[in-house]
Description:
By secondary structure, the chain is α+β, with helices and mostly antiparallel strands. Helix content is 23%, strand content 14%.
Amino acid sequence: MKKLIFMAVILFSCLSFKFADAQVHFSVGINIGSQPEWGPVGYDHADYYYMPDIDSYYDVNAHQYVYFSNNVWVHSRGLPPRYSNYDVYHGYKVVVNQPQPWVHHSQIRAKYAQYRGRRDQVVIRDSHDDKYRNHWHGDNGHGDHGHGDNGHDHGHDGR
Length: 159
């Protein structure tokens, strides 16, 4: 009888684990509405943007920048003053879908170094693809994440 109960517990545990695993995979889906209007087009899901020009990240779901300062990775709603001239609409962004990409920063920096200085990426604001229609009407509820709390314009021209 103890063996039967033990086997039932193991079976139930395995099924529960598989069910929980399925839920995790289900939650990773489309997050177009969470992406800022200055994000690159063509991605149904983006966890982070790596911005090679300023060697920093943007956490799409938390709506925060992640940058290195005083030997630590800082999470902030806005960019620090040293990046006041950075234009989020025209700077190149690389989608990185891995947890805490800054942990592997040296590899990411090396892999995407060739994108520094590029200005040819189409952003959501300038796309006319139907999947971005909520961004056209300002219905995404997130406004312009390029401004952050630091009050810098970042080149937004009001389109």
